[in-house]
Amino acid sequence: MQTNLADFIKDTPEGHEADSILRACVHCGFCTATCPTYQLLGDELDGPRGRIYLIKQVLEGKPATRQTQLHLDRCLTCRSCESTCPSGVQYGRLVDIGRKVVDDQVPRPFLQQALRTVLKETLPRKWLFAPAMKMGQMVRPLLPAALRSKVPAPQNAGAWPATVHARKMLLLDGCVQPAMAPNINAATARVLDALGVQLVVAPRAGCCGAIRHHLNDHEAAKDDMRRNIDAWWPAIVAGAEAIVMTASGCGAMVKDYAHLLA
Asked: Which domains does the chain have, with CATH numbers?
C-alpha cells in the first residue's frame, strides 16, 4: 500500500512503525474471513481492511470523525485477522496507533470518558473488581435480564493443588478472570500438577496492561508491564520454566512486552 503520511506523525517513532505496517498491506481481504465484527455487521469499515483504510486516511491528514472513532472502537483487538494475513500485517499495533491519533482529534463525550476511566481504574485492580463482582453475584437473581446476563453465576473453582514439585511455572492469573471464572486457573493448576509441574502465582503480579493500553492510557499500561516483570523475575531466576496465561488477550499482550517497552 502506497503511503504519504502527514507532517504531524511521519517523523515520529509511531509514524515510522505505522508506515511500515501500512506498506505491508496488499488489500487482499483474507482478514475479513476471521474478523468477528465484519462477520456480524457485514460492513467493510468494521473489518480490518476497512479500518486500515480509515487509519491511513487519518495519518495522511484527513480529519478524523466520530464515525471513524466508532469503527475503531468496535474492533475487539482479538487479532484473529493477523492469523490469516499472508503479508504479516501487524494490525494490532496499527489500530493502537490509529486509536490514539483519532482520540487526540475527536474528544469523547463526558459520559463516555467517565465510563472509560471507571473501566481502566477498576478492572485492573482485583481488590476493587472482585468485591464488586461478588456483590453483583449476590443480587444477581434480582437484576433485570439484560444485566443478569452480564454477571456470571458463582462458580466452584475446586481445590488448588498443594503438592510441591521441583518443576515450576508461573501463572498470570489476570485481573478479571479470578473473579468471573476462577475454575479456569484452578483447572490449569490441577492439569499441570498431574504432569509434575507446580503452578505459582507471583504475589505482586497483576493486570497484564491490556485494558489500559487499549483504552489509550499507554504510560499506565507500561507501569503494569514493568510491575509484572519485577514480580516474575525472582521466580524466573530461580528456575521457573515458563509463564502460563489462560486468557488469550493476556497472552498476546505479554508477548508484546519487549516491543512496547523497548
From this structure: 7-105 (1.10.1060.10), 110-148 (no CATH), 167-260 (no CATH)
